Amino acid sequence: MGKQKSLINDWPIWLVLLLPFVLTMYHWADIPDQIAMHWNGAGEVDRWGEKGWEAFLLPVINVGVYLLLIALPYIDPKKKTDNAQKAMRAFRYIFPIFFSGMAVLILYKWLGSEFEFTHYIYLCIAVFFLLLGNYMQTIKPNYFVGIRTPWTLENEENWRKTHRFGGRLWVAGGLVLIALWFFLPTEQLSNALFYGAICLTVVTLLYSFGLYMLEGGNKAEEEAQKPEAG
Predict the structure, then answer these.
(1) Which helix (H) or strand (E) holds 38?
(2) What single DSSP character describes residue 29?
(3) pLDDT over 70 for what percent of the chain?
(4) What are 36's strand-pairing partners?
């Protein structure tokens, strides 16, 4: 699928990408001169910015991420990335929806909304984990997207098994985090997300390495069983 065709077919995504820009401009007069730009794990503001270009920072990053996903097949030296594959199409929706949702939540926090902002951001992240895991199993070998370890990049079977395992693990992790969202206070939920993400990543990497070691052991055993020449 060509870049131009992808952009045309993705017109619903462009509506999602434009939404934060439109809402920000609509509410521009009501946005305070000092805007919160970052919150710590407890939901407290730890960085402020000036009303201006920083109000559009996240929406601009969102557009950049989308355009990068569109461009990946054209900068892949071995042309292994394909915009038509199921995972890439899904990611072109998941990432814009996630970042646009974050941008809209932040905007209404600037406007003085009293909802527990950070707690809902963590729910968005947990759902994000769940969706990524759901499509992880369908990612074909490439240099840019997926679990790119030395072992998955060098062996398609390792790639397939690692992404199948990692996908199921991330779905399970996302479901656990969503369940915890209903019971944990914001600061504890922050820790659960942080250490949960590390755990999911490390376990997946160890699984990939374990497959590599097992394959090496199997090859050594096969070599040892070969009859000697002569």
Answers:
(1) strand 34-39
(2) G
(3) 89
(4) 48
